[in-house]
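Summary for the steering committee. The consortium agreed at its last meeting that each partner would contribute one worked example illustrating the joint modelling workflow. Our contribution is presented below. We chose a case with several input lines so that the handling of multiple components could be demonstrated. No manual editing was applied between input and output; the record is shown as generated.
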Amino acid sequence: MSYLFNTDDDRKAMLQAIGAESIEELFRSIPAETQLSRPLNLPAAMGELELQQHVQALASQNQNVVDYCCFLGGGAYDHFVPAVVDEIASRGEFYTSYTPYQPEVAQGNLQAMFEYQTMICQLTGLDVSNASLYDGGSAAVEAVLMAISVTRRSKVVTCDTVHPHYRQILATYLQSLDAELVVLPATDGVVSLEQLQACVDDTTACVLIQSPNFLGSLEDVAAIAELVHQHKGLLVTVFDPIGTGILARPGDQGADIAVAEGQTLGTPLLFGGPYLGIMACREGLVRRLPGRIAGQTVDRKGRRCWVLTLQTREQHIRREKATSNICTNQGLFALRATIFLSTLGPQGLADTARLCLRKAHYAARRLTDGDRFSLAFEAPTFKEFVVRDRENRVGELLQTALEQKIFAGIPLGTWYPDLADCFLVAVTEKRTRDEIDRWANCLQTGTAAPLPAKNGSTTVSNPPASQHA
Amino acid sequence: MRNQQATQLVFELSRVGRRGTRLPDCDVPSDEPIESLIPADQLATEPPPLPEVTEADVVRHFTNLSTLNMSVDTHFYPLGSCTMKYNPKRNERLAGLAGLAQIHPLQPDETIQGVLEILYAVQEMLAEISGLPAVSLQPAAGAHGELTALLVAAAYFRERGEKRSVVLIPDSAHGTNPASAQMAGFRAVSIKSTAKGFVDMADLDAKLDEQTAVLMITNPNTLGCYEQQIEDIARRVHKKGGLVYLDGANMNAILGIARPGDFGADMMHFNPHKTFSGPHGGGGPGAGPICVAAPLCDYLPCPALVRDGDDEQARYRLNYDRPHSIGRVRSFFGNVGVLLRTYFYIRSYGADGLRRVSEDAVLNANYLLSKVRHFLPVPQGDRCMHEFVASAEPLKKQKGLKQPAMDLGKRLLDFGFHAPTVYFPLTVHDAMMIEPTETESRETLDAFAEALFRVIEEPAETLSDAPLTTHISRPDEVQAARKPVVRWTPD
Ligand SMILES: Cc1ncc(COP(=O)(O)O)c(C=O)c1O
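What follows is the complete predicted structure of the assembly.
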C-alpha cells in the first residue's frame, strides 16, 4: 500500500485509543445510503517498477523536442535550461514546502520570492512585482481586471496581435462582468495607431498589447503608451522576458502593468504547464496588485528578514473584496526563474537574446531566399516571425517536415483565417546553424539531409529526469 | 555554523564580470548591426541589472536558503486544509521523462497521443471518484476551478434565460469561495454556520430564493466534519432552481467512500496538489480540475479532450468545436505536470488503495483528536474526518495571551513541527486546524501531541517570544505593511 504507515496492529491500537470499534465507525457520520457500496472503478494498483514501465511506454508515444528539432513558439519556447535550475529546484526543502505562512521557518522561500520580485522589476523596469500568477494568459487578464478596478472604467481595448489564448481567456473572464471588450484587427501584423486612436477614449480602462506580439512583430509601445495616457487609461504590455536582454523594457516604454509568460525563464515545455505568470506594476498600483507579495522587515532582534506582506489585498483576509481569488500560485516556477536569472546574469541574458535575434533573422533569410516563401509582415521582429507560403499548402508542408523530425512551425489559419497560408516560426538560442539549414531545405525541397549523428549528444541534451512539479 | 551567503541577497553577492553560464558563440552570420534589425528606440541601452555570480555562488546560496525552510520531506506539516502529504519521488522522476516534459503544447495531436491518453485517463478517474461525469482539466488551481465552475453556472443560467445573481457561501468557507463568486460577476452572500460548522438551515432558508445561482459548500466542511444535511441542503437548492458547488479541498477524507455527485453536488473542483500528492512547491503549482453533472457539460472550457474509437484503436484529440463553452480559462492545456502526478498517484494506489488513503487519513486525525481534546477544546466534538479544529481561546484568559493560536503554533516550530493552520476557519475562535494526513506514523502523531501538551503548559512569556530556536525570531509584520519594501535596491 504505497505510502501508508499504519500496520494492522497500529490500526487496532489507534482505534482503541479513539474508543472506536472499527474504521467504519469513524465514517458513521456519512449516511449509509450515501456511502459508495462498491469499490471505485479504477485500474488496478501498480508497483513502482510496473508504473515506470507503463509510463515510459506512454511517454515514448509522444514526439519530443529532444529528438525532434523544434521551431514552435506561440507562447512557449524551447530555451536552454542550465543544470543548476533542476538541481536546486528539486530540493525537497523547496518543492515540498508550501506558502510561507510561518515566516520563521520559511525564510528560504520568502527570500527567494523577494529576489524573484526584484529580478522581475529589473526585467520590466517597473517598481513592484508579485510572487507569481498561474501563467501568462491569466496574468494578462488579472492585469486588465486590475486596470478596471483602479480606473473604475469598463472599456478594455486590445488587438488581435495579442496571443489568441490570452484574448480567449480575457473574453471568458469578462463575459459575466460589466465590461466592454474591443478587439482591433491588426494592420500589417501590428496594432494600427489610427484605429487605436479612434477607439480609445475617456471610458477606456486600459489597452492590452503584446510586444513582441503573437506574430513576432514589435509594437510601437511608446506611441501606444502616450495615446492611452492622454486618456488617463493604463497600458498593459505582455512582454518576452528573454527579449529584455536586448529590447527596451516595458516599463521604460511606458507600460503601467507588465505581464509575461515566465516559462522561458528556466522551465521546459511540459506540454503547456505548470508555467509562470509574471506581473509587475508601477508603485502607485501596488494595493490593487493580485497575488502574494514578499516584503522586507526585521525580526525582534532587528535582523533583516522577509514576510508575506500587504495581505489585506488577498482572499483569505478580504474575501469577496480581495483583488483576486488566487491562493495557490506558481511558487516553484518563480524559484526556477530566480535561479535561472541568477545563473545567466545580465551578460547571459543579453547573449541569449542576441543569439535568438541573430538566428531568427538568419532563418527568415534562409527560408525566403527562394520564390515560394516570404515574410508576411515588415515590422521588426525578435525571435519569431510569420512566413507566407505562396503555394498555400501549409498543412502539407508542416506534415512533410514532421516526417523529417522537424516541428517546422505553427499554422495560423485557426486563429487568423486571413493567414491560412502562413505559419509562425520561433528560433531560440538552442537552434544550430545546421538545424536551421536543414529546416529551410526541408521546407524548400520537401526533403532534408538525414539527421547528423548526435555523437551521444542526446544523452547530454536530454536533461536528467527530475522535478518540474 | 550559519552560512552568511544564505542571508545575504544574491544581489549582494554580485561582482561585476562574474558569470554563471556561458552561451555558445554565434554560428550564423552576424555582421549586420543590430540597429538594422531592431529600431534603436526599441533597443535597451544595457541589459537588466541582474546579479553577476558564478554557478557555485548560485548553488551555495540557494542550497543554504533551502535549509531555512520546513517542508514535508523534513518535518511533520499538519497545516489544516492543505493536505501536506508525502510527495512520492517516483512521480517527480516520471514527470521529468523527455516524452512528457519536453513536449510543446502546440505540437500536432498525432505527436502527443501518449500524454493525451494519460490526461484522458485522469478525466475518467476524476469522474469516477467524484460521481460527476464531465471533466475539465484546464483550471490551474482550486480557486481557478471555483471561478471556472461559476462561469459555467452563469453560462448555463444565461442560456436558460434565468437571471440569478447570488452565490450563497457558509461563513466557514475558505476565502477563495467568495472571491471567486465576485470575479464571476455574482454577489456573495454569507450563510451562518452552527458551532460544529454545519449550515444553519434556518439561515439557508431565509437567504435561498430564485436569485440563488449557486450554493458553494465544502464537505467535509472546514472543521473536518461531514455535513450530514448535505442531501437535504442540495434538495432545497435544487428546488429553487439553483446549483450546488462542492469545494473539493477536503476530498482526502472520502475517496472511494462517498462521492459528491451522489450526495447532491452538481459541480466541484479537486485540488490534486492536496489530495493526489502534487508537491506544493513553496506556494504552487497546483491544479484545479472540475467535474460537473451532465446538463453542464456543454459549458465546460474549450478545448475538450476527447477520444475517438475503442481502446485498441483509440485516438485522442482536442476538440475546439464547442459552441456553448464558456471558452478558455488557461493558456494551452492547464497545469499538466500536476495532472501527470495525479495519474501516477492514482495508478499507484488503485481503488482499494485510495479508500485506504482516506481511512488512514481519518484514522490518523481521529487518533490525534483523541489526544488533543484532553488539553484543548475541540468544539466539533470527539470525532472528525481527515482534520479537526481545536480552539486555543482558553489560553487568552488563562495566560493573558492575545493571539494564543498563533503563539502555540510558533512555539511548536521550536519542537520541530510545522504549525497548524491558525485563525481559519473564521467561525472558531483562535482556531488551530490540524490535518495530519495518512502519510504519518503513530509515533509522529504521539510526538506532536506530546509537544503540543508541553507547549500549552509553558509560561506566557515563552509562548509570546516563540519561536526561540529558528533562524529568525518573529518578524515585524506591521512595519512590513506600513512601509512596504518589496524589492532590493542598491544603496
Ligand atoms: C477549503 C479550501 N478551498 C479552496 C482552496 C483554494 O485552492 P487553491 O489554493 O488550490 O487555489 C483551498 C486551499 O488553499 C482550501 O483549503
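Chain A touches chain B through 217 residues (CB under 8 Å). Chain A has three domains: 1-40, 69-78+347-467, 83-340.
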